[in-house]
Write a structure and sequence with these properties.
The complex is a heterodimer. The termini of chain A are far apart. Chain A is of the alpha/beta class. In chain A, strands 6-7-8-3-9-10 form a 6-stranded mixed sheet, sandwiched between helices. In chain A, helix 5 runs parallel beside helix 6. In chain B, strands 1-4 form a two-stranded antiparallel sheet. A two-stranded antiparallel sheet of chain B has the order 2-3. The two termini of chain B are about 20 Å apart. Chain B is mainly α. In chain B, helix 5 packs parallel to helix 7. Chain B has a domain of about 200 residues. The longest helix of chain B has 27 residues. Chain B is built from 15 helices and 4 strands. Classes of the chains: A alpha/beta, B mainly alpha.
Chain lengths: ~260, ~325
């Protein structure tokens, strides 16, 4: 039964000094599902994503990945990646001055026992990825091109493609569309939509409720460090998402005045 | 064509070298068409080039080290005193390498673990090691002429077939090794990403602390090796050893196209840059100008080429 659950977090708590960032957060993501985290600034969305991706350690709570309990004391970005959890950040995801092939394989190079990289093979795989998964074609496409020559959408696409190449079971996308032009957003959303086609899952975090509604199967509403509501995409309209989010914002505003 | 574009910096620096050589040959054919001057170059340039190789990796990783001339002095002193005390220059060499890596480790720990920016940390350690060397030596030079006929002398700075300076071969071998590391090894990849954006590198699972400390140690080792070679070549050690190398080595690296912002750099560029810096003085003097022109020419070449790089990078982005 639990095998089709990729990740299950139970009762996560996290404080930064006196500020309680997360309070009793539990969630699970199924195979082939795109789940969206919705909430105002500071609600705790990023804290949740950082705990799942191994950047932050929760104060208490537990984490199950593919049905196995994870020892949170030894959980790291590295460990998360080895368990098939990849994060695509808005920034700090690619090395600007490095060629594409290095960015695809950084930290996970195809190498021999002495640590020397199989450059020819990596370039070939990169070119394949650029053409097949990202749909970049033509003479201009090269594994040696630098990241700084890519558009914002292409960068997010590359990072998502990288996660796919390494067979990520769960791809966490933290605000992947925020800094993009309209045309670029469409491409990124298309990449995200293609994730469940291969039986993989995604956790999508965005402020833009239109984008959220377009790609996610299920919405989790986060308010003041806890998940307050969830609903399915087919039973919720974009307008309802807006209403609910505004309600939470208004509540916190009132409390703020007090 | 695409390949040529990719290597445009390397092509640029190489044509600068060829151009300068052509100019010097034209101005003073009797000097620059004779092999003697090139053998002289091959005996002097490798010292700066070895330092520049170590520093290139450090700069690609977004760090720097201003203390290497002082590390040269202190490890050279260890070499000279251990060689004299034990009559074994090989022991002296190991002592110097140990001292150099220890000094590098100190830099690494101060920068990486304590968090002091490299420019400040290495200004401090630079004074410290220079002071240590001067104190230990009581401010006096050490005469090392008795090492002239030792095996280590022949291996490190001897003349192969009675003409080719061994230090140039060592420099070449180490340059090839560094090239392999920077371009074909996972360490080189780590170095590039750390210099490009250290947060990205961390997110991608690079062990940034270890790599950065390792690079400072490497720089210490290269300083020690260069110092031992200088001691053997000059048959003496002196308390201000290494002082002249600081700016020349940085100049060679930036001339070679390594980015001051980290993330990018080439071994080929650094070696070519070292050669250009190394031949300028001889070229100017044998061309009939006074030695006073040397610094002016250094300055001119550096400012112009670094400006060309900046313009080239700007046009690529837009």
């Amino acid at each position: 039964m639990s095998t089709h659950i990729i990740i299950r977090a139970t009762s996560l708590h996290k404080s930064f000094g006196a500020v309680q960032a997360l309070h009793d957060v539990s969630l699970s993501i199924k195979r082939g599902e795109v789940v969206a985290l919705i909430g105002d600034n500071g609600a705790g969305k990023s804290t949740i994503s950082k705990i799942l991706s191994g950047v932050l350690r929760p104060d208490s709570g537990s984490l199950q990945i593919n049905g196995d309990e994870v020892n949170l004391r030894h959980y790291s970005v590295h460990k998360a990646r080895s368990l098939g959890i990849e994060t695509v950040y808005q920034d700090h995801c690619l090395g600007e001055k490095q060629p594409l092939w290095r960015n695809i394989f950084v930290g996970r190079h195809i190498r021999n026992g002495l640590g020397f990289i199989d450059v020819a093979k990596e370039k070939k795989m990169t070119l394949h990825l650029l053409q097949q998964s990202l749909g970049l074609r033509g003479v201009g496409v090269s594994a040696d091109a630098l990241v700084s020559t890519l558009s914002g959408g292409e960068r997010q696409g590359l990072a998502i493609g990288r996660a796919m190449l390494f067979n990520s079971n769960l791809t966490i996308l933290d605000e992947p569309t925020t800094a993009l032009a309209v045309k670029e957003v469409g491409r990124v959303l298309k990449f995200v939509r293609s994730i469940p086609e291969n039986g993989k899952s995604a956790l999508f975090i965005s402020h833009n409720l239109h984008h959220v509604h377009e790609v996610a199967d299920r919405f989790l509403f986060v308010d003041r460090g806890t998940i307050v509501h969830q609903s399915l995409q087919e039973k919720t309209s974009v307008a309802e998402l807006f209403e609910r989010l505004e309600e939470y914002s208004a509540n916190s505003a009132i409390r703020g005045d007090k | 064509m695409k390949t040529l574009y990719r290597y445009r910096f390397q092509c640029g620096i190489l044509s600068l070298l060829v151009g300068l050589l052509g100019l010097f040959i034209h101005l003073s054919p009797q000097t620059f068409l004779h092999s003697r001057i090139y053998i002289a170059f091959m005996s002097t340039i490798p010292f700066a080039a070895l330092l520049a190789l170590g520093l290139t990796l450090l700069i690609v990783a977004g760090e720097l080290d201003l203390s290497f001339p002082a590390i040269m002095a202190v490890s050279g002193f260890c070499f000279s005193s251990i060689s004299q005390a034990t009559a074994s220059p090989v022991l002296g060499l190991f002592g110097a390498l140990a001292t150099g890596s220890l000094a590098g480790l100190c830099n690494g720990l101060i920068v990486v673990k304590i968090g002091v920016p490299a420019i400040i940390a290495t200004i401090g350690t630079q004074f410290f090691w220079r002071g240590t060397a001067t104190l230990l030596a009581d401010g006096l030079a050490v005469n090392l002429t008795e090492l002239r006929e030792t095996a280590l002398h022949h291996i490190l700075v001897g003349r192969l077939f009675d003409c080719l300076p061994m230090q140039s071969l060592w420099c070449l071998v180490i340059a090839l090794f560094f090239w392999m590391i920077l371009n074909r090894h996972i360490w080189g990849d780590d170095i590039r990403f750390i210099g490009d954006d250290i947060t990205t590198a961390t997110m991608m699972g690079v062990k940034t602390d270890n790599v950065r400390i390792g690079l400072f140690i490497t720089m210490g080792l290269m300083s020690a090796l260069a110092s031992v070679m200088v001691c053997l070549e000059m048959a003496s050690w002196w308390p201000t050893q290494g002082e002249g190398y600081l700016l020349i080595v940085f100049a060679a690296i930036f001339l070679g196209g390594t980015s001051v912002f980290g993330g990018q750099g080439t071994i080929f560029g650094t070696i070519t840059g070292s050669i250009i810096i190394g031949i300028l003085e001889a070229g100017i003097i044998s061309g009939g100008l006074s030695g006073y022109w040397t610094r002016l020419a250094h300055g001119l070449v550096i400012v112009v080429s670094v400006s060309v790089y900046a313009v080239a990078l700007k046009t690529r982005r837009t």
